[in-house]
Structure formats: structure tokens, C-alpha cells
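Data availability (excerpt). The following record was deposited with the supplementary files.
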Amino acid sequence: MGQWMDGFLEKLEANHRENLAGGGPERIRVQHELGKLTARERIDYLLDPGSFEELGSLVRDPRERLGELDKPSPSDGVVMGLGDIGGRPVMVYATDFTVMSGSLGGQGVWKIAELMAMAGQEGIPIIGMFDSVGSRISFTRGFFGLHGLAKLVRNYCLFSGVVPQIALVLGPCAGPLAQIPVLSDFLIMNEKTGFLWLGGERESEDAGRADFHMMKSGQVDLMAQSDEAAMDLAKRLLEFMPQNCWQDPPRKIPADDPERREEALLEVMPDNPKFTYDVHEIIELIVDDGEFFEMKEDFAPNLLVGLARFDGMPVGISASNPEELSGIMEPNASDKYDRFIMFLDNFNIPLINFSDTTAYPPGDKWERMGVIRHGAKNLHGYSHLTNSKVTIVLRRSYGGSNITMGCSKMGPDFIYGWPTVEFAPTGPESIVLAVFHKQLAQARKDGNYDELYDFYLNTLKENFSVMNMGKGYTHYYTVNEVIDPRDTRPRIIKALRAAAGKHEMVPAKRRYIKPA
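Predicted structure:
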């Protein structure tokens, strides 16, 4: 080796040893006692063995060089770089809680901002793992840290929709940094150690925890019992996503028969239409191998969203769930639906809608919550979808939700209905009471109220039935075909194959303006 390299390799090796030591053995011991992996252990678990190539390993807190810091700051508390997951390149970063409690320093925030831009430029997914008490940004020496924070936020926003963004909150994530996981496409939280909080006083013990953000704020997509389980979920998510918005999602070689008819579908529906059922049963009977990867499971459970496969093809599924609130499209369900279908459309993942809903709920309570603008947002969002879209109407399809869930004139590629489907502007029971109230009032006096009510109701139901509505092809209370429920799986697969090569465009514009 020539003299020109004297001392340099030793310096690199010393830097490497210092980085591996993190905040020191005592901080690493505490991290493990808290049930958490270190930043480097997390990256090693997430990525394919030996694939991690670190970036920014020499970076330190500037105060260390100036002799103003008595603590080590390896990598300025952010471990990041390039690696592979299942042979696919990804960018990954993790805040290091053993280094000054994972606080985000002026150099660390610029590192993440730059990594996000690199991921967008190279067209590969980015995965961030958060375990940080918040900002360590100085208000001195030119505010470069604050500039970096703004750059980080802007880069996440600019490259949203260019590459998949996955965030894992595995420890605390507080202050302005808490915005980054929520800006990501999917947020996974460790139920035991994750904490997400912008600031201010907590009014309950569960505030900021994973359950809180799953059930109340709706900001969490998936929860896990450990760091390892959270990273396994991230890997599974990535299996359904393309590298970027210009590619198609990866298809797997299927083991399930694409022509499989499912006899059990004839037993799912209750005999009495007033009774409910769990739509999970239908989904699990028809997707590949019965595997449905559900998101936001405990938020607005009246509408299910999740990922699955049909004949190896990744799809997103949105389904009304009559088991919860009769499957109504209330504001939380609307928000859940809107974000999910936007993600699917952006990354070329087909949308399968299963509709059985009594519509958007009327009344003062819901109007105060903005039910109209939420419904308008769904209509606006669905109208702009250009991905493959298949709608399966199962039973009831009433009011505005019929349109929102992809009715025949909203642009789905294919719409099928089971013979049990009823189309109506609102529930037939409400129509009977509104239109025939005088006749029913007289019938109550005459003692034949039930008989007359049932007569009107059955007449309306017969007229609203898809077996009658399907005789017209030019209105939105119809389908392309009424199908045997047992044929639902092969029908969906053939529809997806037919729509796979389509090229759908919306009118040219600078951008669309969605209702808030």
C-alpha cells in the first residue's frame, strides 16, 4: 500500500468502531431492557443479510468538533443507507435512541432529508424507523437545523406518490418530527414501546399510544407486538408495492386455482335482510389462499381496507362491513377510503370494491361532522382513479354510497352484482314511511297497518331488486352482469386480466382541487 493512504484506513476503521458503539454499552443495555432493538439491530433485521451500505457515517454533531459537547454523537444519531429487502433496493434510516435519546440534530435532519430526495431520484422505496424524543435543533449558528427540518418535510411531500414511504414508530416520536410518519403512505407502531405525539398535555393514559392512534385518531395502519414483528409487517407491505409509481406491483406465482368456485358463499348471507354479517368471511373465501392483509382494522370498522392477491396479482380491497354500523359511510370511513384508494391508484394497484351499505348517514349529528364534504371528497377521489377497478355489489347499495363505491356510471371497469342486490336512493323502509304515510295512518286506525306496510315494502323491494333494475343498462342502478355468488373469484380474476393493459386518462389540468 502506498504512503498516500497512510493513516486513512485506520481513521475509517476507528469511525466504524465508534459508530457501532452508538451511545455506549450502558445506553445499549437500557435500550434492550426497554424491549427495543438498537438502530443498527433494526436495520440488520429489516434488510437482507450483508446488503446494508451506510451513508453519512462520518457525520457528527458540530458541537463535538468545537469541544462544546461531552457526549458522543456517532452519525449524529441517524443511521441510514441503501440495502435490499427480498432482493429489491430500498433506502432505510433509523434514529438512534442510544445517542442523546435519538434527538434529531441539525446534521441528522439534513441526512434524512437528503436520503428522501435520493430515494425519489433513484425511484426506490424508503423506510424510516423512529425512536426519538424529538428535536435537538439549535437556534444558533444560522438555524441550519430548522432549515433542514423544513427541507425534510418538503421532500417527504414532494416525493409522496413517487416512491412508497413506510414509517415505523418503535419508540417515542414527538414534536415536529411526529409529522413525518403521518406523511408516509403507511404507519406501523409497536404497541408496547411506540409513542406518537405532536405536543401539549395528555388527557388520558393511552394518549399517543398505538391503540389510541389506531382507534381514535386513525393515523396508524398496523400495530405489532415487537420491533421484529413491526419490521415483518413492513416487509409484507413491500411485497404488494412497486418500486415507484412508474412500475407495476410485483406479481407472485399463484398456488390457488383461478377458476375456483366457492360453495360456502351461498351460506354467508343471513336469511333475514335485516340481520348483519361479517364481510371478512366473503373476502377470505375468494382471495388467494384466504389471505387478506387488513389496514386500520380498528378504525372505522364499518369499512374494511386491505391488500390481497387474485391469481397472484396484488389488489387493494375496500368493503362495506354490515357487521359494524350497517356498513354506513360516515366521516371516518370516508377518510379511510379516500387515502387508501389514492395510494392504490398512484402505485398502479387495482381496486376491488365490495358494496353493501345503507349510504351516508343523515341527521344533525353527521351534518355537524361534515358528512357532505366527506362524501364529496370520496366522489371526487373515485372520479379521478385511473387504475383497474372492479365493483362487486353484494346486497344493499343505497344513496350516495352506491356512487362512491363505484356504481356503473362512475367508471369501474367491471361491475357485478349478486342476485340479492337492492338499489335504492335510500332504504325502502324510509321510502314507504315517507311516501305512504297517509295511507299507513289510516291503516293504523283500521287495524291493518302491518299488512299494508308489508305490501308496500315488498312491492318496493321487488322494484328495487337488481333482477328488475338490471333490465336497464343506462342508469347507475344497474350492473354489467348479475352473477352466481360462487363465481365471484373467477369473475374478478378475468376482469383484472382484461383491465391490466388499459390506459385511462383524466382531462388535462394542473391539479385537481379535492373537497377538504
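Summary of structural features: The radius of gyration is 27 Å.
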